[in-house]
Amino acid sequence: TQGVSSAASDVYKRQGHFCGNNPGGRGIPWGKGGERMRKLLPMILCLLLVGCAGREPAGITPEEITARLTADCRFTAAFRYDSVEGCAEVEKAGSTLRIAMTDPEVLQGLQFVLGPEGSQMIYGDTVVDLRDHTIHEEALAAVVQRVLAGADPLTVTRQNGSIRAVADCTFFHYEVTLAEDTGYPTGIAVPELNIEIRISEYAPAAGV
User: Fold this and answer.
1) Residue 89 is inside which H or E element, if any?
2) Average pLDDT estimate for 185-197
3) Which of 16, 151, 160, 168 could make an S-S bridge to 21, C-beta 3.0–4.6 Å?
4) What is the pLDDT of residues 6-35, one digit of tens each?
């Protein structure tokens, strides 16, 4: 952007010189071709400035990011948790979050249902109340639930074409990356817990 601005400034200075701002009329003769160039220079200058402005990142506030995160949606989550890698289908409807494990094979069929009335782990006909148990996969589900609840203040920055929102909650720090053009989440990371989640096939609810 700095290079483009400098180029635009140079064009502007040359335009002023050619248009007779040079004292004593010591400018370069325009001629017919020069006259056409003189008429084009303002247009070129405008294009340079517009092009520069077009590359500025779209503004998005922490409140807007929170609205994105708390909206009803569904997406695929590819995760890494310590030495375990896998994949899950996630669906958020109102205050209820459902996570269905699809990979690795040993976890296929395992589901988490987290809501205001309580959280459960379901596998076939077996239902486990998570208030009375602590398991490895529960932390992964709790992280997703916490992020999509939008309960924590966010510090927003922009880096490498994406938006980065960092939260410092009581339990752990987490970072959410979002697409700059849509504001939809593309990833979640919790360094303290060695959790990384890549979000794909994100489908927001209508009107979001």
Assistant:
1) strand 84-93
2) 93
3) 16
4) 433 443 344 443 344 444 444 445 455 555
Q: Is 50 helix (H, G, I), strand (E, B) or coil?
A: helix
Paired tokens of 198: 């890549």
Q: What is the pLDDT of residues 68-79, one digit of tens each?
A: 899 999 999 999
Q: Is 181 exposed, middle or buried (0-12, 13-18, 19+ CB in 10 A)?
A: exposed
Give me the DSSP letters along 173-185. EEEEEEETTT--E
Cβ(198)–Cβ(187) below 8 Å: yes
Residue position matching structure tokens 């500025």: 56
Rounded Cα distance between 3 and 64, Å, is: 32
- What whole-number distance in Å separates Cα of residue 37 and Cα of residue 19? 11
